[in-house]
Amino acid sequence: MNKAKILSTIAIITRLFLGFLFLYSALDKILYPAKFAEVIYNYRLLPVELLNICAMIVPWIEITIGITLLLGVWVTASALLLSGLTIVFIGLLLSAIVRGLNIECGCFSLDAEGSLVSWKRIFEDVLILIGGIYLIWYQIKKQARLESQPPSE
Amino acid sequence: MDGKMSNFKTLKITVYQTIILVLIAVVGGFGFNQFSPHGLKLITPFHRVSIGNQRLKIPIFLSRKLFKPQSLDNMPHQPLELKLNEAYEYFQHRLALFIDARTSLEYNEGHIPQAVSIPLQSFDYQTPILVDFPMNQMMITYCEGESCSESIDLAMHLNEIGFTNVCIYIGGWEEWQAADYPVKEGDQP
Lengths: 153, 189
Known about the structure:
The complex is a heterodimer.
Chain A: H1 3-31, H2 33-42, H3 51-71, H4 75-98, H5 119-148
Chain B: H1 2-35, E1 46-51, E2 54-59, E3 80-82, H2 84-92, E4 97-100, H3 104-109, E5 116-117, E6 139-142, H4 150-160, E7 166-169, H5 172-178
């Protein structure tokens, strides 16, 4: 297997994995928006009045990312959005840890037992961010390669 | 030069696509919320709570449907007694405001998450927590356990001042703790 083939395989696996992950993450939040609004409230960063709006939109950003990644449509834009969102999540988690908040993370599901804010959650988000950045890098490289190729006819 | 132009064009397209994805998410989010049975009010409803000199806004995480008076018209006006599983059901689905009738000290040591503290001895008809609440707000009062009566008295008071949808969780804090359900410490709901 040559290098290009390996990079392409990694890109496909990353894209599908992140696509499924983001769809899965959105599910609980869409089914229980009030609970998700409460999770956001517990971070104590957003004005109370905006909690519901945030709880309505964030899961749908995740769904949009999930679907586009799975379908392989607008992958660069989707990976860009994914990376931006993940950077925000990492910032939120860090701020919660710094302030000593022992709260539910709300990362992948709304199950309070297994997903408290912790360094482990930040590590997971960093891995996701690396995946997102890899996809952006791969897409740009692919685009450049396509443009540098002479027309076939 | 051509390469730079092409890069700029690609970047521009990517930014446009990202904006479109966000717009799709916004439309999807608002649209779904409108039709979802668990849909929320656009602006989070809250009540003002006074703790010391601080005036806090405590959000009410309830489905939009509960704010429609007609959906509660059939509820009995006399306080109902709830069992552990019923209280937990309301807690899980955020269908009611839990009110802790014990002392502030007991409340700070541990309470049901999201429950607000209205100690019976300090209850008066101007209790700040109650201002701004719809009169059909589903409320569940509780105290230490089966042997205490503060929850019943508080429920009756709430009923007297016109709240039409008050329940009493008789098992109270002791039973809730024994069942290993979520608890919270401190003076915050």
